[in-house]
Design a protein that fits this description.
Elements lengths: L4 H12 L11 H5 L10 H10 L3 H5 L2 H4 L5 H5 L6 H15 L10 H4 L6 H11 L2
Helix pairs in contact: 1-7, 3-7
């Protein structure tokens, strides 16, 4: 992984479009998170750590993969901070550094399954095509 976390923090903020300085650490996002118990770092902690540039533990954490991308935290935030977008941006940064960054449209038909909800494909495409 790249060790210049300050540059990565800037890229993550640009990619997500989130302003973490708006966060007042009220914890409403974490209270709404259905994956709260499975996450090492909770949404409000995620925002705080990105704001401080403390990316290394986040990038090594399983929390970025445990996030359900349900955006419940986004809906609950009184200041419109969008923690899920930060989590997705960190996840994408890690995935791209590992060289597995793209889901190409031509790969979708082989992933299709009649029992697979359409939302799962849309979510996968959103996560892996940025």
């Amino acid at each position: 992984m790249t060790t210049n976390y300050k540059e990565q923090a800037e890229i993550i903020l640009q990619m997500s479009g989130v302003n973490p300085l708006k966060c007042m650490q009220c914890g409403k996002c974490s209270g709404a998170c259905p994956a709260y118990d499975a996450m090492e770092y909770h949404p409000h902690q995620f925002v705080s750590m990105v704001r401080r540039g403390n990316l290394e533990p986040l990038m090594k954490s399983e929390a970025i993969y445990n996030c359900l991308s349900c955006f419940a935290c986004v809906e609950r935030c009184p200041r419109d901070v969008k923690p899920a977008k930060l989590i997705e941006a960190v996840r994408l940064t890690v995935i791209r550094e590992q060289g597995m960054n793209k889901l190409k449209p031509e790969q979708i038909p082989c992933l299709m399954d009649e029992n697979l909800p359409q939302q799962a494909l849309v979510s996968a495409f959103r996560k892996y095509s940025k």
